[in-house]
Amino acid sequence: MTDQREDATPVVHGVVKWFDPAKGFGFILSDAGGPDILIHANVLRNYGQSSVADGSEVEVRVQHTDRGVQATEVIIIRAPEGAAKAPLEDFQHFDEAALKDMPWLPARVKWFDKAKGFGFANAFGSAEDVFVHVEVLRLSGLADLQPGEAVAMRVVDGRRGKMAAEVVAWDVISRT
Fold this sequence. Notes:
Elements: E1 2-4, E2 10-20, E3 25-30, E4 37-40, H1 41-47, E5 57-65, E6 68-78, H2 96-101, E7 105-113, E8 118-123, E9 129-133, H3 134-139, E10 150-158, E11 161-169, H4 170-174
Parallel strand pairs: 4-6
Antiparallel strand pairs: 1-2, 2-3, 2-5, 3-4, 5-6, 7-8, 7-10, 8-9, 10-11
């Protein structure tokens, strides 16, 4: 489906085909069909994210250029279908509704290694590191995190310490 604003900038609904944070771009498949839509890392950064998970649902404004269709603005990103519940063993004893009621904590990414599948963040006002698993990122609609990136997290006490149960870009929370 494609919507239009008064300035005739189309809004396209679709799904992220793939996004590579190292390359700085990826592609979206429009629900309405047509050519793949290029999404550049700068467009994601303007939304407040450095990455987006494959399979995430998106709404973007696009422009048609001589090089194809490109996203110019991200309106919304929704985590991939079926991503409501983390399959990690550490979260099995938590009530899903209780997790969703937890407050968002502002934090900065300390480091994250996608190849290793984890990293750590520092919640503001706390000296204790928060473990961030790559699967939690994927289920939150993210593919990667950069050191120093501002995020909001729902944090639980896991068997091995503080763990992120959900992570979003700080800009996403500040808009709500």
